[in-house]
Amino acid sequence: MKIAYASDLHLEFQDIMLTNTENADVLVLAGDICTVKHFHSRPEMEKSYQEFFKTCSEQFPHVVYVIGNHEHYNYQFNYTVNDLKRKLAHYKNIHVLDNEVFDIENYTFVGSTLWTDMNDECPLTMDAASFAMPDFKIVKYFDGVNYMKFTPQQSVREHAKSLRYIKQVIRNCNDKDYYLERDVIVVTHHSPSHKSIHPKFAHEELMNGAFHNKLDYMMEMADNVKVWIHGHTHDTFNYVIGTTNVLCNPRGYPKEVGHGSFKLQYVEV
């Protein structure tokens, strides 16, 4: 099976159309593709987004899409995923995964935003993230009683929930009595390893904990996780941990280095 993969296309800043030049079976979109609020507030942006997803649906037999942090921007966290699913429901081959799976052939795709544990819930990391990141300034959250700003503490809870789910899927797919021993492809927005930190950010110990996880141990232990595709960082990565190929192929923002040379990448499993 051949997989095309991309992340951080940021259609809210500039259009792009993806072409299946290598006959991939699945397109993976690892988050920060669009901003969901624009489907409701900016008709010209909704039209542009729908044209993008229509092209993806036509070009690729299946599309696996996990949302990033930007999908939530200027919106209500609790509504984002379901609203996006409703807006894309007429594309029957686009699968928006939020702690969910999609099975094809002998592979299970498990998808999640993932978030991070903020350097193991480090107060300094959470304070720095709260001060510096729009995630915790312009995203609303409903706790069942009140509306408030989304917080680093809530992102840690979301991370724990997603991590439990991903681990359970990996275990189930390695249990021949439960799931017939399927190989797993993990798709998250936030990265699973500090190996996805570009050297230029190596000194940012606090903020790196808001972007990256330390899940190397999972890949070292789980020989059925063949590929882990992520986004969030705007630098390209391709490395191996255990038997897992970790991949990241972002477009990034219009003025960033490499933005103009972006192209789809492909991996065969």
Overall description:
It is a single chain. By secondary structure, the chain is α/β, with parallel strands linked by helices. The chain has a single domain, classed as Purple Acid Phosphatase, chain A, domain 2 (4-Layer Sandwich). About 30% of the residues lie in helices and about 25% in strands. The chain contains nine helices and 13 strands. It has helices spanning about 40, 45-60, 75-85, 120, 125-130, 150-175, 175-180, 205-210, 215-220, and strands at about 1-5, 25-30, 60-65, 95, 100-105, 105-110, 140, 145-150, 185-190, 225-230, 235-240, 245-250, 265-269. A six-stranded mixed sheet has the order 5-6-9-10-12-11. A five-stranded mixed sheet has the order 4-3-2-1-13. The longest helix has 22 residues, at about 150-175. It starts with a strand and ends with a strand. The mean pLDDT is about 95.
- Which topology does CATH recognise? Purple Acid Phosphatase, chain A, domain 2
Mean pLDDT: 95
Provide the CATH top-level class. Answer: Alpha Beta
Main β-sheet, spatial strand arrangement = 5-6-9-10-12-11
Measured as a percent range, the helix fraction is 25-40%
- Cα separation of the termini: 5 Å
The stretches of 5 or more residues where confidence is low (pLDDT under 50) are: none
The 3D shape can be described as globular
- Return the structural class: alpha/beta
Following the backbone from N to C, one meets helices and strands in this order, namely EEHHEHEEEHHEEHHEHHEEEE
The number of domains is 1
- Mind telling me which CATH architecture this is? 4-Layer Sandwich
Strand content: 15-25%
